[in-house]
Design goal:
Length: 136
């Protein structure tokens, strides 16, 4: 099983070296962010599943995840970035595929990157503003 995963990673690496075009990077971005989202959802289910242990068990489980607060908000911001990248890339791929616009791949990647940077800046200000300016 691990050998198959390793072979797949070696194949992706080879593809990125031989074909370093935006489409291949987009493919890798979609896979990596997808795996990150699955990992987050599994952790979320474990924490939310601890509610069956009563209020004390749930509070203890939630306390482990949210402590310290200075660490929790940046991780929420990273989650927002991962979700944003995955969503924007998925929308971009869907539009390119269903509208027959695959020849405009580089332009669509540039547009997606611009939207991502703007949304990440706004999200960073909303998520991290109180950490950067605690008394403002």
């Amino acid at each position: 099983m691990i050998a198959k995963w390793w072979d797949l990673l070696v194949q992706y690496r080879r593809e990125l070296i031989l074909n370093p075009l935006p489409g291949m990077w987009s493919f890798v971005l979609q896979r990596v962010t997808g795996l990150g989202i699955v990992f987050y959802l599994l952790m979320h289910i474990v924490v939310m599943g601890s509610v069956t242990g009563g209020p004390e068990g749930f509070d203890a489980s939630l306390g482990r995840v949210q402590s310290p607060v200075i660490f929790f908000k940046p991780l929420e911001f990273v989650l927002m970035l991962v979700l944003l990248a995955h969503a924007l890339n998925g929308i971009r791929i869907t539009v390119l595929d269903f509208r027959g616009l695959s020849r405009h791949n580089r332009v669509s990647v540039a547009i997606m990157a611009a939207v991502f940077v703007i949304a990440a800046a706004v999200g960073g200000w909303l998520f991290l503003g109180h950490i950067l300016h605690p008394h403002g």
